[in-house]
Amino acid sequence: MKLCLIGYGNVGYGFIEVLRRHRPWLKERFGFAPKIVAIHDIRRGTILNPDGLDLKIIADAWRNNQNLCELGGSTNAPNALAVIKDSGADVVLELTPTDLRTGEPAAGHIRFALLSGKHVVTTNKGPVALFGKELLVLARKNGVQFRFEGTVMAGTPLFSLVDFTLAVPVQRVRGILNGTTNFILTQMEAGKGYEEALAEAQRLGYAETDPTADVEGFDALAKIVILANMVLDGDLRPSDVSCQGITKLAPPEVQRAPKEGFRWKLVAEARRTKDGVEAKVSPERLPLSDPLAQVGGVLNALTLELDPLGTITVVGPGAGPEVTGHAVLSDLLAIHRGLQ
Ligand SMILES: NC(=O)c1ccc[n+]([C@@H]2O[C@H](COP(=O)([O-])OP(=O)(O)OC[C@H]3O[C@@H](n4cnc5c(N)ncnc54)[C@H](OP(=O)(O)O)[C@@H]3O)[C@@H](O)[C@H]2O)c1
What we know:
alpha/beta, 12 helices, binds NADP nicotinamide-adenine-dinucleotide phosphate, 2 domains, Rossmann fold, Dihydrodipicolinate Reductase, domain 2
């Protein structure tokens, strides 16, 4: 399997590190030995090698902030579409930054790759939240796979669980899908004010300098739209979903809740109704007996409801370069198995 990476940031590097560490096991267990034949990044340059790039050299280049062109890569700054076309890759890994308004530039890269008969793996929420179903149809028409495990709960398995393990439809999902807000709420419950908890999240690298997407619930919104459409067969746009973040929660209320047997969480929910699928994001005061109430810090969790199992709750890390790199690897393995 030949891979072309578009976007070589934290997730691209994390993926390469996970692949390097587990390469012998992947080969022995699954006969799986992918090669990276092209990397294109707007900041770090472009490199192509049809025989496969040396993973240690490209990982070292990333750590040392070295431009890929210095390794003998392209100097004439080709664009992503030209690289996808010329790479000879079977699979394109679309790992550019998320834009939840337009889905670009990722959506354009993904459409082009699928139309060119290449499988696509992405961790970018934008194109999946906005155009997920259209892209799945395009993939099917072109006889290839479009996979996006890393878009929700990063490397914690979710879509592969639904795709390969469950034999009945999921009726409802409820989850903590944003680690930053969960961390802030955990800190607030322990006695910190909102601003202080947010500053701590920023200091530890969990929250961006501009935390709006997290604290206003937009990140969780994109993820619940993906789940509503791709797991519950809905047809929602982000604008169809009511969304409230955590900024209006009063710290004394958050601190008092556990003494009364409750805990505040930012909950994203989607469920099937007789008219289709509904979704929302809002802070909820959950009873402590709810498995979601026991999930603290930056962890994510999702409860799935289905007949006859009742509920299943998956808990795990929801961000991080290597954790998300694992999602990429897991999608590649799914494609590898499909090809076999
Ligand atoms: N990091 C995580 O824990 C995590 C978890 C789940 C999902 N994700 C998603 O995974 C994707 C990648 O995340 P990341 O953390 O690796 O982001 P990142 O560190 O910002 O890396 C993205 C890279 O893509 C480059 N880029 C921007 N536009 C490009 C274009 N048109 N063509 C080629 N390269 C381009 C960026 O360059 P510039 O920096 O110059 O723009 C950057 O080097 C994002 O969509 C993110 O939301 C990340």
